Amino acid sequence: MFIGHGLVAFAIAASVATRRTWSAERALAVGLVAGLFAALPDIDMLYAVVGLIGGLEGVFVTSDVFWSVANEVHRGATHSLVVGAVAALGFAGWRARADLRFGSAAVVLLGGLVAVVTAVGGPVTGGIVAVFVVGGLAVVALAERFGFGARTVLATAALGLLSHPFGDVLAGPSPGLLYPVDVTLLGGQVILHADPTLHLLGAFFVELTTIWLALAVFAHLRGWRLRDRVSPRAALGVAYAGAVFAIPAPTIEVASPFVFSVLAVGLVGVPYHPGETPDRFWRTVTTALAAVTLAALAYSVAYVVVLA
């Protein structure tokens, strides 16, 4: 759900803005801000990147090694509803910092957040939350450039930060939603199907649905229809059904061969050449997404018929 977090928040925020009769450009802008806030908790993945660079002994790093490092902190403090709520208030206060009271409150909230997390989780976790706060302030700066006030910052930050953790329950254990309070809010990973491959495929279709939803909202705001941007070449994705015989049955633990190969099917949307019209670009994107969706559907049917 790395992409899905941001796209869900984008679709919701832009749709609400449209219902409030905001202009298309303003609705797209508020959707972008909400999407960036929704992606912000995954800034904790920088720990894995920095850790691997610091301890890298070879040229290549396997996905297992990467995730073993990332999971030391991933879905921790930055995925907490408590941390997200405090941060959203702090970001809104910073947007209203022209009023000294709000600016001071923002410094206390955000600085105190880093201090408390450091005291509870140690310097590594505290450092990650500090980077999280800096990233959030960068999003606030973008919101300022768009002309959004503190209330809009509060709404988009709350939407993004508080929705993010729930998108992770399909791809692994539930995040510590009430961190630093040691209380379990959700008992564990949500299982869509007892068959691990069908569970993975279900989670993949959830991700695809969020992308289609965001693209549909974008198309509506731009005034064009998705079907007009899908090339007949997308139908070639059906041929991916044969991959059921070529790659290991994917699961959450062993997903890379399936994910990378099915995404490669999207290349049927190419060619796109820089310098061509934006309409051509979106035709490429929409065709690629349609091809990947058909490929995943074809693979799922083949899996159920042949292997399940």
Q: What portion of residues belong to β-strands?
A: under 5%
Q: State the helix count.
A: 11
The whole-number mean of residue pLDDT values reads: 87
Q: Percent range for helical residues?
A: 55-70%
Number of domains: 2
Judging from the principal axes of the Cα atoms, what is the shape? Answer: globular
Low-confidence stretches: 56-62, 65-70
Number of strands: 0
Q: Which structural class do you get from the secondary structure elements?
A: mainly alpha
Described by strand count, sense and barrel closure, the largest sheet is: none
| Distance, first to last CA | 25 Å
> Helix-strand pattern, N to C?
HHHHHHHHHHH
Round the Cα radius of gyration to an integer and report it: 21 Å
List the helices and strands and how they pair.
Elements: H1 2-19, H2 24-39, H3 46-55, H4 63-70, H5 81-95, H6 100-121, H7 123-146, H8 150-163, H9 196-222, H10 256-264, H11 278-306
Word description of this protein:
This protein folds into 2 domains: 2-168, no CATH class; 196-306, no CATH class. 62% of the residues lie in helices and 0% in strands. The protein has 11 helices and no strands. It has helices at 2-19, 24-39, 46-55, 63-70, 81-95, 100-121, 123-146, 150-163, 196-222, 256-264, 278-306. Helix 1 runs parallel beside helix 9 (196-222) and helix 9 packs antiparallel against helix 11. The chain starts with a helix and ends with a helix.
